[in-house]
Amino acid sequence: MSEKTVRADRASATRESILVTAERLFAEHGVHAVSNRYISETAGQGNNAAVNYHFGTKVDLVRAITRKHTERIEGLRAEMVDAITETGDLREWVACLVRPTTAYLQELGSPTWFARFSAQIMTDPALREIMTEESLTSPALSRTVDGLSHCLPDLPADVRAERGDMARHLLIHMTAERERALDEGIPTPRGSWQDAATGLIDGIAGLWLAPVTSAR
Predict the structure, then answer these.
(1) Sign of the torsion formed by the C-alpha atoms of 26, 29, 34 and 40
(2) What is the pLDDT at residue 9?
(3) Rounded-to-integer distance, Cα 60 and Cα 66, Å
(4) What are the residues whose beta carbons fall under 8 Å from the beta carbon of 96, sequence distance 6 or more?
């Protein structure tokens, strides 16, 4: 093995160590509570500027963590979307929204930090755009949103937007809470990620189909 290859492998291992460490620290403490220097130290890097060297700014690091996970999640979503026929119903489209994330968390094993990391990012106005931008580039997610809309032709646009926000919050924060409970050994309402997804699909489908009360 050449010296160049050895250096490249070492750099790749360093980047991965930083990504895993940063994701865990961000998930547990919040992005702004953790410095790049502390991430480097916790990742066992002698160079305290390792994060800056390998990734640049903290925003660049957050984007790298997000991309590390979303590629696989969107791949799973694409498989589900492709399996839906033209007569796909609301519940099938909600499943395309929910199950790719829960299936991926199941794949990762325990402990995981991505759900809590996502919750931290989505509650930060300065960082939320990163995850939104990464999601919006996914054709599978766009098809999922279109499929949901086609199942709700009579739902006013403003209500549809509002319930879309509600659904997103449910998905992000319920998966984060389950992930935290699993990490801390706390009993959860559902025994598996697959069952947790079923509960989320029930709740989100019900949310979309709830009556609309006119403003008074």
Answers:
(1) negative
(2) 60
(3) 10
(4) 77, 80, 81, 84, 140, 144, 147
| Maximum Cα–Cα distance across the chain | 74
pLDDT at 76: 97
In terms of Cβ atoms closer than 10 Å to its own Cβ (0-12, 13-18, 19+), residue 126 is exposed
Mean pLDDT (the chain) is 91
DSSP state of 213: P
Assign residue 4 a region: left if phi > 0, alpha if psi is -120 to 50, beta otherwise? alpha
Predicted model pTM: 0.90
The CA dihedral of 28, 31, 35, 41, to the nearest 10 degrees, is: 40
Supply the DSSP string of 105-148, one letter for each residue. Answer: HHHH-SS--HHHHHHHHHT-HHHHHHHHHHHHT-HHHHHHHHHH
DSSP state of 190: S
Q: What is the 3-state secondary structure (H, E, C) of 30-72?
A: CCCCCCHHHHHHHCCCCCCCHHHHHCCCHHHHHHHHHHHHHHH
Three-state secondary-structure class, residue 74: helix
Rounded distance between C-alpha atoms, residue 113 and residue 105, angstroms: 9
Task: List, for residues 17-66, the tens digit of each pLDDT value.
Answer: 999 999 999 999 999 999 999 999 998 886 778 888 889 999 999 999 99
Beta-carbon-side half-sphere exposure of residue 3 (alpha carbons within 13 Å) = 0
Token pair for residue 209? 């189909």
The H helix count followed by the E strand count for the chain is 10, 0
